[in-house]
UniProtKB/TrEMBL annotation:
SUPFAM superfamilies: (Trans)glycosidases, Beta-D-glucan exohydrolase, C-terminal domain. It comes from Salinimicrobium profundisediminis. One of its GO terms (molecular function) is beta-glucosidase activity. Residues 693-762 form the Fibronectin type III-like domain. GO terms for biological process: glucan catabolic process. It holds the Pfam family Fn3-like. This is Glycoside hydrolase family 3 C-terminal domain-containing protein. Belongs to the glycosyl hydrolase 3 family. The keyword DNA repair does not apply.
């Protein structure tokens, strides 16, 4: 292409005129760009290399950033403000929120003043359960968020995360993950909302809307990047990124949450590392161009997962050269390259060799530029550094983190109503590897934390019982069997009125852990102390037992005769068969975030009535897998050794209140595509305390032309009811809820009988009713 001089840019500046439409500005800018500048806009480099911290008050852009601007015309950075063992950014050499805002302003200033066209950079950050940066609010991980069954609450949480991220100068928040968690051996279950398409979709929509708000240029919102497109969570054997083998109809379950989130306005989608039926997701034209962009009308941009374009050549072995890989990805619909080494020179060469047309390149660049214009970055590339303290990790956000943590807790068992505990208790033993370990309760994708930022279970109970003697004994580690003092735990339990044992797992990364280029951890045991980490990206499991000597510790404490309560803090369902038979109360906490200790104490001592419901099924054995609730009929038969039922089913969660369901009515209004089925019932609190119940509606298509599940969640509502109070609950089914993909791959509601099941879990069904659809309804494919 012919060179374009600076004078031409100054005299023809439609793209700099905010009164012009986004399309006009994009088209004008595209005409001015060289091939190298276009490709540069599609590169998202690792951002933590792009600054140098001078001291606690000053930060400068690095020479690496200057070189990237001059030599590679970069358009985006990722993880610039990120801190963790992989990035080697710590509390000492990383950035606090004020320095982060100063840095992002300097980055923008440099690129605008030192590039020919002055295009501001996009800054993308990890935002799974809070902005993954120093000094931000840490919310419960996504599997805990899923346990809230509360879209309104997640909207509020996502709005807070977006605000904290945007005021520091970032523009894109990676999240939510909409993968279905149907394989608990997989290392990233904690990052999902659970196993169900409908629940994932509703919670995903809430997070997308919370991130993006009503106006993406507000200065308080960020672009939401949906992960990972698609079916990433059900790889063979639970191996992270391995092949996925599923049929066309089953794939629709995995696409469903993405479709709903895209139609709710999500502006970015990330590809998956895995392949589907032999086609890598990062080169899957049917997924990206045909389904996402053409069929669903997605008008944002698709970004590869880190290194996944290079993976077409390396991991998947479907590309013979870097140029082939770049061409395969962009021709299939990938618009941006996370990592910056998949497109770059290889894509430039692919365009020159006619492997990629200029029109395809321009379409990708247009999608990225359009969002920079829509966010107002050309007019307002900088952030105000004066309002950081009031917006990042504010008291309001800490209170919100506690609220989300409270609602994320699931009471699995409460024999003889041992919970809530009496606050007048004099002596409490708090025992276990997760009772007083700040990083073990935070999950993966978490930045380094000052100790006073996090409230552990031990600290939460001490806060709750200022007059009691609260004793902490670790007892054992998560995995390492050399770090064990069960005798001390037993002695503490014997001297106490109640023992609270906190076990589970950990996704806590440390500086000894090795990582591959994508940031996934490498499972490797040293000859010395073994890390607690048994979950988190890269840590797939072959078994689901409590690791190390944790079960031995629990059994020893129980044998003292002291009333024992089990709290589990972990990132995936683990086998709890012995505790379920022998421990009177079990509280599932997942990774409850920075306020987890306070929230757990609130539930244990009755200041909050638990309302969480399981978003995943808990198996009895690895041999049962898969064990998700909405499998296709016929009903699974029992094994020789055990039955086929989960230990705890999807949707399960107890309360200190009791709820009585009655007066179910179903009203069908057949109006072709506007057909609705209105469902109404009464729910009464029969207990002595106010409680929140999640009323769940499951549907069964009684006779269908293709095999379907015996029940599928299609609506739910979380309601708060006072003691003795009754409330009317209204639920609704739409045409899309009744439809299936028939033998001809047509989306259709088939005439016939449907069964509605209303319950407190997928197995605790309280009311049933049938209704008829008299005429089939064809939907758009």
């Amino acid at each position: 292409m012919a060179a374009i001089n600076a004078q031409q840019v100054k005299t023809k500046s439609i793209y700099k005129d905010p009164s012009r439409s986004v399309d006009e500005r994009v088209n004008d800018l595209l005409k001015r760009m060289t091939l190298e500048e276009k490709v540069g806009q599609l590169s998202t480099l690792l951002g933590w290399h792009m600054y140098h911290k001078v001291n606690d008050h000053t930060v400068e852009v690095s020479q690496e950033f200057k070189d990237a601007v001059q030599d590679r015309n970069i358009g985006s950075l990722w993880g610039t403000l990120r801190a963790d063992p992989w990035t080697k950014k710590t509390l000492d050499n990383g950035l606090n929120p004020l320095l982060a805002a100063r840095l992002t302003n300097e980055l923008q200033r440099y690129v605008i003043e030192n590039s020919r066209l002055g295009i501001p950079v996009f800054l993308a950050e990890e935002c799974m359960h809070g902005h993954m940066a120093i000094g931000t609010t840490v919310f419960p991980s996504a599997i805990g968020q899923g346990s809230t069954w509360n879209p309104d609450l997640l909207y509020e949480m996502a709005s807070a995360i977006a605000l904290e991220t945007r005021v520091q100068g970032a523009h894109i928040g990676y999240g939510p993950i909409l993968d279905l968690a149907r394989e608990p051996r997989w290392s990233r279950v904690e990052e999902t909302f659970g196993e169900d398409p409908y629940l994932n979709a509703q919670l995903g929509i809430a997070v997308v809307k919370g991130f993006q708000g009503e106006d993406i240029s507000s200065g308080e919102n960020v672009i939401s990047t949906l992960k990972h497109f698609a079916a990433y969570g059900v790889s063979e054997g639970g191996h992270n990124g391995a092949a996925v083998i599923i049929g066309e109809r089953d794939l629709q379950n995995y696409l469903y949450p993405f479709e709903k989130a895209v139609k709710a306005g999500a502006l970015s989608v990330m590809t998956a590392y895995s392949s589907i039926d032999g086609i890598p997701s990062t080169a899957h034209d049917k997924l990206l161009d045909q389904t996402l962009k053409e069929k669903w009308g997605f008008d944002g941009f698709v970004v590869s997962d880190l290194g996944s374009i290079e993976g077409l050549r390396g991991s998947h072995q479907v590309a013979g050269s870097p140029q082939d890989a770049a061409a395969m990805a962009i021709n299939a619909g990938v618009d941006a390259d996370l990592g910056g080494n998949g497109f770059d020179a290889a894509l430039i060469e692919a365009v020159k060799n006619n492997q990629v047309s200029v029109s395809v390149l321009d379409a990708a660049v247009s999608r990225v530029l359009a969002l920079k214009f829509r966010m107002g970055l050309f007019e307002n590339p900088f952030v105000d550094t004066l309002n950081i303290k009031e917006n990042v990790r504010s008291e309001r956000h800490k209170a919100l983190a506690r609220k989300v943590a409270q609602q994320s807790l699931v009471l699995l068992k409460n024999e003889s109503n041992i919970l809530p505990l009496n606050k007048n208790v004099k002596k409490v033993a708090v025992i276990g590897p997760n009772a007083h370990n700040i990083y073990n309760q935070l999950g993966d994708y978490t930045a380094p934390q000052p100790e006073d930022n996090i409230v552990t279970v031990f600290e939460g109970i001490k806060n709750k019982l200022p007059g009691a003697q609260v004793t902490y004994v670790k007892g054992t580690a998560i995995r390492d069997t050399t770090q064990t003092d069960i005798e001390a735990a037993v002695e503490a339990a014997k001297k106490s009125d109640v023992a609270i044992v906190v076990l589970g797992g950990s996704s806590a990364r440390d500086f000894k852990t090795k990582y591959i280029e994508t940031g996934a951890a490498v499972v490797e045991d040293d000859k010395g102390i073994i890390s607690d980490m048994e979950s988190g990206e890269g840590y797939d499991r072959a078994t689901l037992q409590l690791m190390g000597k944790q079960l031995e510790l629990l059994k020893a404490v129980k044998s003292t005769g002291t009333p024992t309560v089990l709290v589990t803090i972990k990132g995936r369902p683990l086998l709890l068969n012995w505790p379920a038979e022998n421990i009177p109360a079990i509280l599932e906490a997942w990774y409850p975030g920075q306020e987890g200790g306070n929230a757990i104490a609130d539930v244990l001592f009755g200041d909050y009535n638990p309302s969480g419901k399981l978003p995943v099924s808990v198996p009895k054995s690895v041999g049962q897998l898969p064990v998700y609730y909405n499998h296709l009929v016929p009903q699974h038969q029992d094994y020789v050794e055990i039955d086929a039922q989960p230990l705890y089913p999807f949707g399960h969660g107890l309360s200190y209140a009791g709820f009585e369901y009655s007066a179910l009515s179903v009203n069908v209004q057949e109006k072709k595509l506007q057909t609705v089925v209105d469902v109404q019932l009464q729910v009464k609190n029969t207990g002595a305390v106010t409680g929140e119940e999640v009323v769940q509606l499951y549907l069964n298509d009684v006779v269908s032309s293709v095999v379907t599940p015996s029940r599928q969640l299609k609506d739910f509502k979380k309601i708060s009811i006072a003691p003795g109070e009754s409330k009317t609950v209204k639920l609704r089914l739409l045409v899309d809820d009744l439809a299936l993909l028939n033998v001809q791959n047509e989306r259709i509601v088939e005439a016939g009988t449907f069964e509605i099941m209303i319950g407190s879990s997928s197995q605790d069904i309280r009311l049933k009713e049938e209704f008829e659809i008299t005429k089939s309804i064809e939907l758009e494919n």
